[in-house]
Amino acid sequence: MRRSRAASIVALGAASALALAACGGGGGTPADPGGAAPGGGTYSININSDPEKPLVPGDTTESEGAQVARALFTPLVEYNNETVEVEYSGPAESIESTDNINWTVVLKDGWTFHDGTPVNAQSFVDAWNYTANVENAQGGAYFFSKIVGYDGENPKPAMEGLAVVDDLTFTVQLNEPFRQFPLITGYTAFAPLPEAFFADPAAFGRQPIGNGPFKADTEYVPGQGITLSRFDEYAGENAATAAGVEIRVISDINTAYNELLAGNLDVYRYSLPPELATIAPDELGDRYFERVSSSFTFMGFPLYDARFADPRVRQAFSMAVDRPAITDAIFSGTRVPAYDVIPPTIDGHRPDACGFCQYDPAAAQQLLADSGFDTSQPVELWFNSGAGHDQWVQAVGNQLQQNLGITYTLRGDLDFAQYLPLADEQGMTGPFRLGWGMDYPSPENFLAPLFTTAAQPPAGSNSTFYSNPEFDRLVAEGNAASSNDEAIALYQQADDILLTDLPMMPIFFGFSQGGHSENVDNVAFSPFATDVVLTEVTVNG
Question: How high is the pLDDT of residue 83?
C-alpha cells in the first residue's frame, strides 16, 4: 500500500479531528519520559517488501517503510490510536495561529535524538527545507507546498516561510490560510533530522538516527530487514514497552502467515489474502486482531496513455466492475465496496458519491462504444506481486471481458519496491492497482497528495498524472475554509469532479487484519492502515 504514498473491530471516531486542529495549542499532558512501563524481551514483525527508498522520513511515503519510520521518528504531534484526534504527546508544546497563515511552533525542552544531540527548532527547519528542496527528490516534498517559498520545479535550499526564533521556537508562514496545519504535522515527513543526517544522507538512510521510541541497532539489510531496540531516553509519552523488535521482510503474505502459525514470527501485519480471510479468526482464536482501516484500494489509469485519455473509457471500465461481487465472493465481506475516494473512517465520506461506480454493464458498453475504444487490443492490468492481489484483479479483468468484450493480460510480476518507481516514471501500460492509507485524518489527505497537479511525481503520489485546475482550486479553497463544515463541503465538491473524471476506479475500502504468537500480547493496529502500534506490544515470559 502506498500512503502519502492500510482484538475487536474499533471504529475510528475522526468526525471531530479536523476541528481540534484549528489553532493548535498545548493539548495533552506534560511529557512523561518512559511513560509506558518498560518491559523486557524482543519480538518479530513482518513487512511485505523492502521500503521503496532509504529510511529518511521525508522520503518514506509507502506503507512498509512507514511502519519502520514511525518507530524511529516522532513528528511534532501524534494521533490518538482510538479517536484519531491530535495529541500533543510529541515534541510540540503548542502550534498556534491567529490567522491560520502565520503559525508559531513551541517545542518541549529535553528531547534528544538517538545520538544524544538535541531536538530543537533548527532540527525541524533544516529537515523541512531538505525535504521540500526539489534537488533532493524527496517523495514527501509535496506536503510542504503550502509553505511560503516552496518551489516544486527549481532547487531551493531554504523556504522563506520558515524561521528559527530560538532553540525551542520556530515560525511557519503559509501561502494561504490552512486551519488544518497542526493536524498534518503528525505525518512522518514532518519529523526532525539531526546534524548527522546532513553529513552523510546515504549512511543515515541505511541506519537512521531518529527521535522516536525505538532506535536502529543495525543497518537496514535489503531482503532481510532491521533490528530496533527501545530508546530509553525517549522524551515522549508513548515510550516502547518491549526491549526491542526485529522487523523482517517476508515478501509473500502466505509465507508470513505460515511463519506465524509455525511460531517463527510473533506479529503478522497486513490484510489477509482471500484464502485466509475466513479461516484466520478460527485458526488463531484470540490471537487474531483486526480493525476497520482507512485503506483505500483503487486501480489508477495511466492518463499519459492515449487509450485512457477519454474519460468515457474510464467511466465505462468503472461501471463494468461489480464491486460487491468482488468483496463478497473473494473477500467474504472483509472489504467494503468503494463508491467514494474518502474512506468511511474519515469525516466527509459519502457512501454513494460515485455514480460512475454503480454497476451498469449496458451503460458501460454504450460509453465505451461512444469513445471509440479499440477492444481488439488487450488491456494490461497491473498489480504488485506477493500481496494477495491476484484474485481480485483477475476478477476485475473477467468482468471487463464479460461486460465490455475486452481481453486482458495480468501483470503481477514486480514486487512493491520495483512497482512504485515504475508507476512514478509513467511506465504503466494499463490500469494499475494502488492503495492509500491515512497519513492524517482529513479528506484533504485522500485528495491532494493523490490527485492535485502539484502532487505529480517526484514531488507527490499522483501516479495517474491527473490534472484539473478546478479540482485543484476547490481543494485549495477547502484548505482555506474558516470552519470544518465549510471545508468538508468544498472537499466534497472537489471529490465530485474527481469521481466524474475518474483518473482511477475506486474498488474497495479495507480492514487491517493480523495475528500474533503466544509470545506477545497487547497487539493492535494503529489508525494508519496496516501499521501495528509497536510501542504497546508486550513480550510474555
Answer: 85
